[in-house]
Amino acid sequence: MEFSDAYIESLVQPRNELLMEMEEYARIHHVPIMQLPAIDALNQILRIQKPSNILEIGTAIGYSALRMAIALPDCKIVTVERDPERVTMAKHFLSRSVEGNRITVIEGDALEVDVESIHSTFEAIFIDAAKGQYQRFFEKYSPLVPSGGILYIDNMYMHGLSDLDLKDVPRRKRTMIRNLKNFTDWIMNHPDYESTFFPIGDGLLICLKR
């Protein structure tokens, strides 16, 4: 049985005024943020996991970091973003929230910054950044996750492009999709992780570290 997008959207949890303002800003300025059904599902899983700290790769304007902080009132979040303009907007929005004091925004390339200087381990990592670099992000930061920790990875479906043969993918996106496909094959067969793909939003991959 399949459910329509409209029906799924009708089940999305209500958000406060600041979150809805961020959603509108993202829409107007074409900033990619996590789809609403997917962030609801992610937050429900996080409530079950109850991590005390989360590392996020890809802050954008701080929307998902704030949503996670609201869902987990005892959790601290470190989030990394390389775009200076988005960092500025993220700090602006987060400064207007009660939860913002539990969120640390780091400006810089996630493949270069020293996150360990802030915290040495994270019970959960959320990756939502450059899709063609997912394996490099995973390889760099997964050692910071202890056994039993979880890595959550968004946009695995890439708006349907991941389901196409490479010859049918627009040329300018072929390298990214090739890397994403290779990463998917790699992590689904990785002996150190139990990985499951959830077909919600634009595809959410959940990797439990053994």
UniProtKB/TrEMBL annotation:
S-adenosyl-L-methionine binds at residues 34, 64, 81, 109-110, 128. Keywords: Magnesium, Metal-binding, Methyltransferase, S-adenosyl-L-methionine, Transferase, tRNA processing. GO terms for molecular function: magnesium ion binding; O-methyltransferase activity; S-adenosylmethionine-dependent methyltransferase activity; tRNA (uridine) methyltransferase activity. It is an enzyme of class 2 (transferase). HAMAP family: TrmR_methyltr. Pfam families: Methyltransf_3. It catalyses: 5-hydroxyuridine(34) in tRNA + S-adenosyl-L-methionine = 5-methoxyuridine(34) in tRNA + S-adenosyl-L-homocysteine + H(+). Mg(2+) binds at residues 128, 154-155. One of its GO terms (biological process) is tRNA methylation. This is tRNA 5-hydroxyuridine methyltransferase. Its EC number is 2.1.1.-. Belongs to the class I-like SAM-binding methyltransferase superfamily. Cation-dependent O-methyltransferase family. SUPFAM superfamilies: S-adenosyl-L-methionine-dependent methyltransferases. Homodimer. The keyword Cytoplasm does not apply. Catalyzes the methylation of 5-hydroxyuridine (ho5U) to form 5-methoxyuridine (mo5U) at position 34 in tRNAs. It comes from Ureibacillus endophyticus.
